[in-house]
Design goal:
The two termini are about 20 Å apart. This protein is mainly α. The longest helix has about 30 residues. The protein has three helices and no strands.
Length: about 110
């Protein structure tokens, strides 16, 4: 993989990390406990609890993605970055630009 490709992917990873971190902060606010006596307004308590559940699931997924992105950021400078962990074939740069946390090629994934 070319050094210019690696630098573009590294910049993409850093952007994704920033976006994921911001989303995590927002979701942590949305997943605060809902007090039983709190006036919720137009939403019923059940709707508020459902929304909280959806946001908690999204928070978990985003935290997992952030961990993968941080791992990828550490690996991007290594020689084996961009090679499939299963078949050891190069992962296309386009795939790494779209999913920089990818560790497998399309066929192995």
């Amino acid at each position: 993989m070319k050094a210019s490709d690696k630098s573009q992917i590294k910049a993409r990873i850093q952007d994704e990390i920033a976006d994921a971190s911001q989303l995590i902060e927002e979701l942590e606010e949305l997943t605060q406990p809902i007090a039983p006596d709190a006036a919720i307004g137009r939403l019923s308590r059940m709707e508020a609890l459902n929304n909280k559940s959806v946001n908690e699931h999204l928070l978990q997924k985003t935290q997992a993605k952030l961990q993968k992105l941080e791992s990828s950021l550490k690996r991007v400078e290594r020689e084996d970055y961009g090679k499939c962990r299963s078949c050891n074939e190069p992962i296309p740069v386009g795939r790494l630009m779209m999913l920089p946390e990818s560790e497998k090629c399309v066929n192995c994934a």
